[in-house]
Amino acid sequence: MYFKNLVVLLIICWVCNACHEGLEALPETVSIEVKEKNLNSATVSLSATKPGRGQGGDWSFVSNNASTASFSDERNPLATFTGDPFETYTLKWTLSLHTNSGDSEKSGDITFRMADGYSVAELIGANIPLEKIADSVLLGDLKTAGASDAQLKSSGVIGEVQDGEGNVYPWVKIKKNIWMTKNLQATKYADGTLINDVAPFNNDAANTDTYGLLYTWYAARKDAPEAQTTGVQGVCPTGWHMPTYQEFSDLPHEGVLLKTSGTLEDGTGHWRDSGNDASEGNNKSGFSALPGGYGRYQADPDHPQHGLNYTDFTESAGFLISSYSTGSLTDHCGSFYVSYSSPDAVFTYSSGGSRLSVRCVKDSDR
Questions:
Q1: Are residues 228 and 258 located together in one domain of the fold?
Q2: What is the extent of the structural domain holding 145?
Q3: Where in the chain does DSSP place strands (E)?
Q4: What is the pLDDT of residue 226?
Q5: What is the pLDDT of residue 16?
Q6: 89-99 and 102-112 as β-strands: parallel, antiparallel, unpaired?
Q7: Each residue of 295-339: pLDDT tens digit?
Q8: Cα(26)–Cα(57) distance, rounded to whole angstroms?
Q9: What pTM, to 2 d.p., does this model score?
Q10: Whole-number Å distance between alpha carbons of 316 and 276
């Protein structure tokens, strides 16, 4: 019996050794390609190094957006990948080999976005919803590609909202956020109570319709705790909120894309001409920044400009945000500026008693 068992064991060992002798070593590198894109079906055809004898292969995600995509077969090197055309994915293909002496792996990865390489007109032609295209394409590019105002409105790229006082504000989708394109001019909060510390520029009511009203940071936030930096409704209509630092950061910072076109000098706009081509506005984003100036508050009683002083009308636009990113709370007022003399919008701090414009952002329903 012992001899018989020994023979069986030897046979098994011989078979195993023969099997391992037939294994193929892992390659030095693993290649991956996107062979073909299909925007209509939001798919790409993948091609990766085929597993050799005795090897296995697996697709996986490196990027943290697996919930928006899938593979037709996670073990097929020629799998079809389905995802969001405007998401950036990083995928990994791993070859594995298991032997008596241990396990080994080789992998390669690829990063891509399906929509890359296509013009806006081609994206529209692929029947991708305009609202989806607007996640990464600015309003001006959509219009240049032939999208009409009626199409943009029906797709949720542009629209209007009315506050409780009957003021109407156009809005536009800029990337994934919906922004008012007109400065707030509410004199009451959404619950009907009067707003204190609000006035038009230079206290001149003639400036209200075009440039809106100017609010202090405290009045704009209403009774929101200082520590609250997101979801602050404040002076905004129901369903809208003051922009956060992150939402401001998500705007295109090139002032040319935010500012209305034309200058005072050429008689076609509101902005002064700085002589710097980079600051000339084209409003491609649809944000429609107008230079409504602001009220600068100097708290120091010994300062020659102590108190509230209105300044920078026709030269800059200052917008309150609900939060501050860093810094001391001695200067509470988080804000960003678009200036005629600077090519970029900038974040800054101001005295909480200063008065600036407010642009509201729609609450997310996603």
A1: yes
A2: 128-156
A3: 32-38, 43-48, 55-61, 70-71, 80-82, 89-99, 102-112, 158-162, 168-174, 177-180, 198-199, 214-216, 240-241, 294-298, 307-311, 316-320, 333-339, 346-350, 355-356, 361-362
A4: 79
A5: 45
A6: antiparallel
A7: 988 766 666 666 688 999 999 999 999 976 555 445 567 899 999
A8: 11
A9: 0.82
A10: 15
